[in-house]
Amino acid sequence: LSVILPVYCNASTLREIHGRIAGVCLPKGVRYEILYVNDACPEGSGSVLSELERGYPEIRVVSLAQNGGQQRAILAGLKQCRGNRAVVMDADLQDPPEAIPALLNHLGDGISAVFAGRQGRYESPARLMTSRVFKTLLHLLCGAPKDAGAFVLMDRRMIDRVLAMDASSPFLVAMIACSGLPVRSIPVERAERPDGQSAYVGGMRLQVALSALWWVLRWRTGFVRTEPDHLS
């Protein structure tokens, strides 16, 4: 299992998230690696990641030269992961590592990706409302689960399918939904952000949403292609 976490200004949560992931995987005997993707973070995350990488053999750090945003950081992690399954999650403690076993239990039997469907009051009412509108539009356009977020488990077939897609404006949820492979969502309570603020604020959230919807429209009309040689 590869656990992929994009990192941007998460210095205060990195040690705890590592401990909780290890606490889930080790008792169950899961062979795992943790890939932290440092998205050219301007605060102290880099030094914390270097410390963790030196202390734990299961940790690898992928450092990006320039900040590309969460979605590009996720793709960078997927390109580097070695597991036959990969789970993507945030590094800010809003996505609970304790949900990983439930996601693993629902993968298989033809299902190539399992979303941790976002439940609870993990954001302000205004942000939750605008997020609901965006996810409803995404669902209507490509069939993505209405509660889907970036906390998702994929098998190797889905990983390869996503990496074969045009990533000029990547958005993982849409790419998975457009893969043509079966997916499902299970409810997972999402925590409030324990420290700091989300990097997605105001106009940036709107830009990401419009970019994702535009990608799906291009996909539906055939302007976004998949490279067949990469498909399993």
What's the order of the H and E elements? Answer: EHEHEHEHEHEHHEH
Mean pLDDT: 87
> Which structural category fits the helices and strands?
alpha/beta
Give the strand line-up of the largest sheet.
3-2-1-4-6-5-7
Poorly predicted tracts of residues: 228-232
* Main sheet specs: 7 strands, mixed
How much of the sequence is in beta strands? Answer: 15-25%
Distance from first to last alpha carbon: 19 Å
- Estimate the global geometry from the Cα principal axes: globular
Total of DSSP H or I helical runs spanning 4+ residues: 8
State the helical fraction. Answer: 25-40%
Supply Rg.
17 Å
Kindly state the number of beta strands. 7
Structural description of this entry:
The chain is α/β, with parallel strands linked by helices. It has eight helices and seven strands. The chain has a seven-stranded mixed β-sheet with strand order 3-2-1-4-6-5-7, sandwiched between helices. Helix 5 packs parallel to helix 8. The C terminus is likely disordered.
